[in-house]
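Form 12-C: Joint structure prediction
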Amino acid sequence: MSDFRQLAPNHRWERVFSGSLTEIPAAASWVESIAAELHLPESQVFAIQVFLEELMSNIVRHGQAAQDCSHPRSLDPAKPLLISIAVNAFEDRIALSVEDNGVPFNVAEARAKGIDQPLHKVQPGGLGIHLIKSFADNLRYRRTSKGNCVVAEFMA
Amino acid sequence: MKLSHEIEETGLNGLKSETNPAAARGPMNLVVRELDNGITKVTLEGRLDIDGALKVDSEFTKIAGERKNLLVDLSNVPFIASLGIRTLITGAKATANNGGKLVLLNPQSNVEKVLRTSHIDTVLPIISDATDLEAVFGV
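Section 2 - Result
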């Protein structure tokens, strides 16, 4: 996406979560408390919650920690998967930066799958990427020395 | 259509503790009522996020597998994620296999936005009025 501005945020929060499904509600509660502090509109908070839930779920279920960055696809079961979330509040938007040390996965280029078939042909599941892309106003991915970094913007 | 009788109430409350953020955000509940004309109403209460969906999924799928026509009341569901949608679709496929259908009732506006964004409304009817269920279900 081309519309990312590089100004410093008015406020910034950062926290690291372990890569497990039980951490997703904890992250959601944390972001919710920040949203309450900032008095964000309900629709914006909801979009952030959907995005975060789906992205973290995807990371946890598919992103087992990579062994090292020179061989990013080699898995290391002993290395804990970590998810670092930064919330940057600007006057007109919230930018969420989500980094993990999992195997490479470019969510911005991943195929989004909505329901496009009759019920008997629909395979349950696989809607997460579609919701991630639909609820973020801007979405950017880059592979870093630590792993994956996804930045999403949510306009007020 | 009036409710005939309540046959089952399943409380699927999560373990509520101060250290469980999901529980602090409210437990997930599922209530089943048998209506007239072979229609079963399932009321879901709570967040259908990954935590809530995992709590109700097996019970919901079991109920859908045993029924033909299922009315799923979403009016007390403030949030839904893809895993919750997966639960609804699995249930819908089960009712279709039984020759019936699954209909969603009264989703909150944000939840409806997720449902329509996923295009679930192309395979599951979403209604806001339960006064003429015979026509909705064709019974």
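Section 3 - Comments
Chain B is about 35% helix and 25% strand. Chain B touches chain A at residues 20-22, 24-25, 49-51, 79, 81-83, 85-86, 89-90, 92-93, 96, 110, 113-114, 117-120, 122-124 (CB under 8 Å).
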